[in-house]
Every structure is written in C-alpha cells, then in structure tokens.
Design brief:
By secondary structure, this protein is of the alpha/beta class. It folds into 2 domains: 178 residues, 3-Layer(aba) Sandwich (Rossmann fold); 86 residues, Threonyl-tRNA Synthetase, Chain A, domain 2. A 5-stranded parallel beta sheet has the order 2-1-11-12-13. It starts with a strand and ends with a helix.
C-alpha cells in the first residue's frame, strides 16, 4: 500500500514571516511539494476570507481549517462524496465545530462585564485600529475582522486578571486559546480536532493509501495540532519560545525562523 503525506500548517509566524507576513523563504519548497502532489493544508487562526486570499496567492486548491479549528472548508468535489455533517456554502463543504461568533460576543458582553476594561475585542476595533495593532494592511485587517465562529481579544490587563478571565470563560463553556498575539474566544474546538477529522476524510475517500500527517506550528495555539500529527515540526519564533509538547518522538525543531524554518524542516523530512 502506498503512503501519502498530508501537510497541515499554521500560517502566522510559521509559513508566513512574523514581521512581513511573506512566504518568500518557503516558495521553493512549496513548489516542490506541489510537484509531488503533496497537499498543503492551512490550519490557522485566520478567517475564511483571509484564507481565500492566501490560497489564491499561493495557488492552493486544498481544504483549509479556519479560526483555530472552528471550521473545515473542503472544495466541493475535492473528494468523491460529500463528508457527512457538512453543509454546502459558496463552493465548499463546510464542517463547523463551534457555535457562531454572535453567541460568544453576547457571552463576553453579558457575562464578562467585570473584565470589560481588561480587553479590546476585534469587534470593538475599527479596521484602522486593528491594522495599527497587527501591522496588517487596511485591506488585510478588514478581512481579519470577518470572523464567523469566534472573537479574538487583545489583552490589556494583568497576568492574574488574564488567568481569572480564562477560568471564568471556561466556566461559561467557552474555549480560550492563546495565540501569538491574541486570546481567541470560541467553542470547544481546536486545530487538533479539526485536523484529525479532515485526515479521516482523506482516509475514507482514498482507502488505497496509508497517510502520514505532518503539522508545522510556532505557538501555544498550535499544540493540539502538533500533538495530533504523526510528525510535529516546531518553528522557531522571534517573539517567543517553542511551545511545549507532551509527545516525545517524531519532533523536529527548526533552527531558522518562520518560512525559512518551515522549508528547512520539510527538506529534511521529505526531500532529505
């Protein structure tokens, strides 16, 4: 039985440079992977609209996972049959793992009043404020605000207040993920669950293959996806340490940052 590789990748700080949001250092490796028909599957905190643009730029036709595992988007007819539990939306089969954003916004407004001075949510920010905060262009910041399943917040309060807030949100049934820059409030979903589900669809639809999953990420909110993969690749970040994993085997750590580290490790693992 032939083996196929699936590559699940975080974007910010991993395939996209932490400062410039460019993929330049990885472009050669991306081209090699495409020539070998190895799917590159974004698994990111970014929104559907941001991902549609990035997929277009990188000329990817693969599925993708948005908003930290809140939803999986599979192009219609990518597989022979539509996976159960998916809905058709704008040319994609969509599997949602979280309630819509409106639910979490009402929770933050009504049930987390005591913390309201400690954070500033994406929904409260103007496009200009978000662009200022992230270094994104105005257009890209507008796409980042188009969230469907959760609300990222910029934490302004103390570390202690942050821990209290996270505990409080958990009690209300929310999941709080700490990304490279923001706290993400959404349902009980993560990049790992969504990745496992999508890898399973590949296995169901292509039973003639065995599959090896490789996940690449640089921060705390990538842990679930790194743990769920056969091979975990930790990408060096200029902003923070490598995330800490429970798994002890099949782990690579890049010596280069961002996309250069992404290419460095995949060259070692796949192209040797």
């Amino acid at each position: 039985m032939h083996n196929k590789t699936l590559i699940f990748t975080d974007l910010d700080g991993t395939l996209l440079d932490h400062h410039t949001y460019q993929t330049e250092a990885a472009d050669g490796t991306i081209a090699q992977l495409k020539s070998k028909n190895i799917p590159i599957i974004p698994n990111t905190s970014k929104t559907r609209d941001e991902l549609l643009l990035i997929r277009k730029d990188l000329q990817l036709n693969t599925p993708f996972i948005s908003e930290n595992g809140a939803a999986v988007y599979i192009p219609v007819n990518y597989f022979k049959t539509q996976p159960p539990g998916t809905e058709v939306q704008d040319g994609f089969w969509v599997k949602a793992f979280s309630r819509p954003k409106e639910f979490w916004l009402s929770l933050l407004t009504l049930e987390a009043k005591q913390f309201s001075a400690d954070f500033h949510g994406f929904s409260q920010m103007s496009v200009e404020q978000l662009a200022d905060l992230t270094g994104l262009s105005i257009n890209d910041a507008a796409l980042a605000k188009q969230r469907l399943y959760g609300e990222p917040v910029n934490w302004l309060g103390s570390q202690q207040a942050k821990q209290d807030f996270i505990k409080h949100m958990h009690l209300l049934g929310a999941n709080v993920l700490e990304g490279g820059r923001f706290l993400h409030i959404s349902g009980n979903c993560d990049k790992g669950q969504a990745q496992i589900w999508l890898a399973e669809q590949y296995k169901i639809n292509q039973p003639e293959f065995t599959f090896t999953t490789i996940a690449l990420g640089d921060s705390h909110n990538d842990i679930a996806m790194l743990e769920a993969a056969d091979i975990a690749v930790l990408i060096r970040s200029p902003a923070h340490d490598f995330p800490t994993l429970q798994k002890e085997t099949d782990i690579y750590k890049s010596s280069e940052y961002g996309p250069a580290g992404w290419a460095e490790c995949l060259q070692k693992i796949i192209f040797k």
